[in-house]
Amino acid sequence: MQNDHQKLPNVEYAIFDLDGLMIDSERIYTEVTNQILADYGVQMTWDIKAGLMGKPEKEAAAHLLSFFPDISLTIPEYLQKRDALQNLLWPTVPPLPGIARLIKHLHKHDIPIAISTGTRRANFQMKTSHLERDIFGMFHNKVVCGDDDILKVEGGGKINGKPAPDGFIVAAREMLGRSVGKGEGNSVTLAQRAERAKGLVFEDALPGVQSGKRAGMSVVWVPDPNLLNLPYPEGIEKPDQTLPSLEAFVPEQWGLPPFDDAL
Q1: Which residues form a coiled coil (predicted)?
Q2: pTM for the whole thing?
């Protein structure tokens, strides 16, 4: 499953997505959405779900409901019901396999780490506070959330969600102090491009893969197995490595210190 046909670059810092990558929140999203849709006699299938992953919430809700034009549920009504049900479950969401070990390892070896997530700041707190000791405390609040004002500055007054690269660029520059510049294209100097290339993004969703690659960083894709059953979309950026789980990540392939414990 790994993309081993090319040598992987050495990296110096890592930026993590949250939902579906660090915590098993995608399962909760699916269960809650189908609980709501059941009242209307419909269900979200995996091909629909794949199109939602990584999108900003209103855009994702519009995409979801576009498949059910005959039901009376509006986007605001759906989001209100969804938030109420999800908020009850966030404090119990478990970490995904391999994440605690990897974060402890990077933290121990002083590899700079940050989080860039499309989730709102208030939701981030609900999703992570019960995992503070084992995982999230090691980030020392180096977190960019989807409603942070700093993203408006980056986006020229608006927040650009994934697949725009803004979140990863802001995380590298503002949270980790890397000289990565701002934006894309000709505004980025060669030195800034080289600094971006030292970053490694961990993602589970295709818009996140696009975002990381557009930010000029390497990307490890850890998709839900159901995503691998769907054809990879043509014409979009591809990850540098695809893994079945973070348990399969080998740090020394990226020039990072090897794990010093055996699974």
Answers
A1: none
A2: 0.91
Query: How much of the chain exceeds pLDDT 90, in percent?
Result: 84
Amino acid letter for position 70: D
Q: Which amino acid, one-letter code, is at 155? A: G
Residues paired with 220 in a beta bridge:
202, 241
Residue 228 and residue 156 share a domain:
yes
Domain count, the chain: 2
* Torsion angle, alpha carbons of 61, 78, 76, 124, to 10: -70
The per-residue pLDDT for 262 is 63
The residues assigned a catalytic role are: 17, 19
